[in-house]
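Justification of resources, computational component.

The compute hours requested in this renewal are based largely on the per-chain cost of generating structure records like the one below. Each record pairs the submitted sequence with a full structure-token output. That output is archived, and it is also reused by downstream analysis tasks.
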Amino acid sequence: QVQLVESGGGLVQAGGSLRLACVSSSDSLSTLSMGWFRQAPGKEREFVARIGWKSGGRYYSEFANDRFTISKDNARNTVYLQMNNLKPEDTAVYSCNLIQISQNLYWGQGTQVTVSS
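The structure output for this chain reads:
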């Protein structure tokens, strides 16, 4: 069973930055991609960003394209999400997921990000 553990969430003022991290227990050779999603209170979970584990290809949602950066450290089995110029509407629980080459899908528990105005 693959475990994903997120960290880096917290309370930040509007305009501030946070860097989230997600450590995976998966064998790096088995990983196809890792991504970030978020869910705000009363809303459905939405896609934020994804990165190919071997290719390094990056994909972003429209709202994240110019403020967020996804990156990875293969040796540490870790994916990061650098979030800049945060806005109150970015307040949500941010979760990472991992897709293996076998198409198995795993989710982390999430980390809370709160942006005050």
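The two ends are 40 Å apart (CA to CA). The chain is about 0% helix and 55% strand.
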